[in-house]
Design goal:
The chain is an alpha/beta fold. Helix content is 47%, strand content 12%. It has a domain of 213 residues: Aminopeptidase (3-Layer(aba) Sandwich), CATH 3.40.630. The chain has 23 helices and 15 strands. Strand 3, helix 1 and strand 4 form a beta-alpha-beta unit. The protein is elongated, with a radius of gyration of 29 Å.
Length: 622
């Protein structure tokens, strides 16, 4: 691709309006924009005649420091570039300017051509050593990129590609290192149509590679590289991200998913079912829906993620939107044959390894004597919960949890947002109270309030797929405080069996009898397990408790710290994301830490976990 003709720098005035923190977001000409979220030693440049299909423009605007413009704004861009570079040079001895551009498509590419366009990145650099090293780091990073089973080829050029208005400025200042980056058009069909998935993957890879290059540049320049190269990424949420987060959060709060699909007559149905000796499946009743799923979905997909200028946040919001979509689908399908497959879409099936672990637990614990104890009810549970909540609130009054005793829930506890709901039918052994509160208050409520301090509501309501590790952490908390009794671990294993049986086509009565006769569960317990699994037509969630517990035990035994999981409601596959956001200063360490982790006996208990820990070993500790 031949560089465009050079244009003379026009004297159009540009007065940069920096904030007190050194941030700048300002229009340039009619269609351009300058954005600097904090003082920076590098600047991305892009000039585009067709912004809608430009990958280079998309990569540029995901940078923390960029200048973009259209050809008709060349004069304004020249003025803006001079002003911005002058301010950068006042702060830094050496700066890096990167020109991003889209390579041209082959003009003779046929629509049905059997060959794919070359996957080649073009990288050029100036004559100075700093620019050469930055270009080499960029090339090395891009050479590791593989998309659609193809590895990127890197071609280095002896001279960089220059945007109009750039060359005269760069050539005139030895303190400016210049690198150019030509992005391959593999995301474009021969007709010019964009392949969205490939566009996204290449954008992410290119943005990541540019941060690696900038980190190498600052390290070589003796400025002191950050701990992680991604710390150079965006360090502030744009208003577009905050607006998107508010919209998603409003939709998530417009309905209570678990309450919507949970029966309101479980206790009555159990007495009727057991009184009739289990001859007919129970009939469950549900509270009226407070949301129209179709309208909520319309609002959900009316949220535009294109203006976020941050691929990582775009991914998180997109994943959450899909999860909310799945939940709304289940709500719309409750008590119909469509509910069960919709539930599988969100929670999957019971994998053979998990089923084998559940069966092993039931076999190892069958016939173990049950521990006799004093029983307590809902009011005593509420008193204990309020006392623990007050302890956390003394650390920071933002831990403002509510406790409700409700008649419309099955026996047990449920956390919804910042509220702990206790069924009035609840009866439990007194020695289980500490474990139950560790699960519900010190995990579920704690991560809700920690997530509330992070600036984005999505860390409070939960990133996509967070439930598995949340419940796993809850069960781990029960185990850590010594409250994971034989009856409790058998209950979790029984849920796995019930979910598996339901997904394989068993009805309520067959599942109930399998638990009661096949695995020696009491009739009330067998009913409770089956009722949870068959609510709304077949709910696959209950396998996640044992699955999540096993995952947490394996993680801790392998040396993985749990600290990132207290930041908010996140999934294990978000750990790298959380680490990056911490490095960029967009997330903060958790305000609250589970109180049980500070107990010396529990610290010793957790320290006993090793890589060869098994469920059998854990059970032997009880």
């Amino acid at each position: 691709m031949n560089p465009p003709s050079r244009l003379a720098l026009a004297p159009a005035p540009f007065v940069a309006e920096y904030s007190a923190t050194g941030a700048l977001r300002q229009p340039v000409g009619q269609h351009g924009r300058a954005h600097i979220d904090r003082p920076s030693f590098f600047l991305m440049l892009h000039r585009s005649a067709d912004p809608a299909t430009s990958l280079a423009r998309h990569v540029a605007v995901t940078s923390p420091s960029y200048l973009i413009w259209n050809p008709e704004d060349d004069a304004a861009a020249a003025s803006a570039l001079r002003a911005i570079v002058a301010a950068m040079r006042d702060r830094y001895e050496q700066i890096l300017v990167v020109s991003l551009y889209d390579q041209e498509q082959s003009p003779d590419a046929a629509e049905d051509a059997p060959r794919l366009p070359p996957f080649t990145a073009l990288i050029g650099s100036g004559d100075d050593d700093a620019a050469t090293r930055a270009a080499d780091a960029l090339g090395a990073a891009m050479a590791e990129v593989e998309i659609d089973l193809r590895r990127c080829h890197v071609e280095h050029r002896s001279r960089p590609y220059f945007e109009p208005t750039v060359e005269a400025l760069v050539d005139g200042d030895p303190g400016i290192s210049h690198v150019s980056f030509g992005l391959p058009p593999i995301y474009l069909a021969p007709t010019g149509t964009v392949y969205p998935q490939m566009f996204r993957e290449l954008s992410l890879a290119a943005g990541d590679s540019l941060l690696r290059s900038a980190c190498s540049f600052i390290a070589d320049g003796g400025e002191g590289a950050p701990v992680h190269y991604r710390a150079l990424g965006r360090s502030a949420f744009l208003s577009a991200a905050l607006k998107t987060d508010r919209k998603l959060d409003a939709i998530a709060r417009s309905f209570d998913f678990l309450l919507s699909i949970s029966p309101i007559n479980t206790d009555e149905a159990m007495h009727e079912f057991l009184g009739a000796d289990g001859g007919k499946s129970p009939r469950f009743r549900y509270r009226p829906l407070e949301v129209d799923p179709d309208i909520a979905k319309r609002d959900l997909y009316a949220i535009d993620l294109a203006g976020l200028e941050d691929p990582l946040l775009e991914t998180l919001f997109s994943e959450k939107r899909r999860e909310l979509d799945h939940q709304l689908t289940m709500i719309a399908a409750r008590n119909t044959p469509e509910f069960r497959p919709a539930s599988m879409l969100q929670y999957g099936v019971v994998e053979p390894e998990l089923l084998a672990a559940a069966l092993a637990i039931l076999a190892a614990t069958e016939g173990r004597p049950r521990r006799g104890t004093t029983m307590i009810g809902a009011s005593e549970v509420a008193t204990g919960a309020r006392a623990l909540i007050d302890d956390y609130a003394r650390t920071d009054d933002r831990f403002a949890a509510k406790v409700e005793i409700r008649d419309d829930l099955a026996a047990g506890l449920m956390v919804s947002g910042g509220t702990l709901m206790i069924s009035s039918h609840t009866r439990l052994a007194r020695h289980r109270l500490d474990a139950l509160l560790a699960h519900e208050v010190s995990v579920h409520l704690l991560t809700w309030f920690n997530g509330s301090t992070q600036g984005l509501g999505i860390f409070r309501t939960g990133l996509a797929r967070y439930e598995g590790v949340q419940e796993g952490l809850g069960v781990f908390a029960e185990w850590a405080v010594g409250g994971l009794t034989t009856a409790r671990i058998r209950l979790l294993a029984g849920r796995v069996l019930a979910v598996d049986a339901m997904l394989r086509g068993a009805d309520f009565i067959a599942c109930f009898e399998q638990l009661r006769q096949g695995h020696d569960f009491r009739p009330q317990t067998a009913f409770s397990i089956a009722a949870r699994v068959f609510r709304s037509g077949g709910f696959a969630k209950d396998a996640i408790y044992l699955r999540g517990f096993k995952a947490v035990v394996d993680a801790v035994a392998s040396g993985l710290p749990l600290d990132p999981f207290w930041i908010g409601k996140i999934a294990p596959d978000h750990l790298a994301t959380v680490e990056e956001l911490l490095q960029r200063g967009l997330l903060q360490p958790p305000v609250f830490r589970p109180e049980f982790l500070d107990r010396p006996d529990i610290q010793a208990r957790i320290a006993r976990l090793t890589a060869d820990t098994s469920f059998d070993t854990i059970l032997d500790w009880e």
